[in-house]
Amino acid sequence: MIVVVNPAAGGGRAGREWPRVSAQLRAEGLRFDAVLTSGPGDAARIARRAADEGRPQIVAAGGDGTVYEVVNGLLEAKERPETRLGVLPMGTGSDLCRTFGIPLEAVSAAAALRAGATRRIDAGRLTCAGPRGPITRYFVNIADAGIGGDVADLVNRGFRVINGEVTFSLAAVLTLLRWRNPRLLLDLDGERLELVSQQVVVANCEYYGGGMRIAPGALPDDGLFDVIINGDLGTLETLLLLGKVRAGAHFPHPKLERRSARRVEVSSQSRVGVDADGERPGDLPAVFEVVPGAIELVVPDPQANLSRSSR
Fold this sequence. Notes:
Blueprint: E1 2-5, H1 13-27, E2 33-36, H2 42-52, E3 57-62, H3 64-76, E4 84-89, H4 95-100, H5 106-115, E5 118-130, E6 133-139, E7 142-146, H6 147-156, H7 164-176, E8 183-188, E9 191-196, E10 199-203, E11 225-230, H8 235-247, E12 256-261, E13 263-268, E14 273-276, E15 279-298
């Protein structure tokens, strides 16, 4: 097993805590090699090389951005037939872990790595406008087009207060103060829509933004995205909704719509950012496509191997 540690995750908290966490993991019998990243893109390169070498398990130790990089390295690898993905949450949001019941404390989460249970889940493939032309990236949790990209930018530039929940909530409020809803053109599996929208959320899992349950009940193994379309919401309306979104109680709402789709295309005449697993890879136009069963994720509960959709 190789552990890819992002010491910058959580505003540097991961780097400060890693020596203690590493010692505890070894004391509990986990055998692993650890590699610390030194900058953006390192985690993807390390994961790609580890998968090509045939490592059976790659663990992302950091936040959702670290998982995002490791997933991209894993899915870009030439050889990855048996490589599993594990997560040690040490970042700001750690939203992927919430859907699967992975503890949000790293040493507690290590119990899942010891148990070795897995669940085969979908990934998303995103193609969008990058700084030097079209780029393709993968995500496993949630992507969106709209205000989320600007919120991600603010947090990734170093905005941190207290914890992930408060950080993302305040970042959303600050972003709202200068945000103007753009007109978007959507294509959902061939159905075209045109509307003024705050954001379009393309969800594989349930949570984003430090614990916001934006897509309650989303199934990460059903071959479909849950698409949440936020309409022309104003600042006050959004602030009143934040608590409901955190609790997953925001439906029904006259300005929110929930759809399912395998392929989502979003474009705009305005410059609109795209967010994928808390990172800002680029801008619209963007295409989001499901990649069924792309990742074998290590999970705490053996029953999680059974898709909830079959229960």
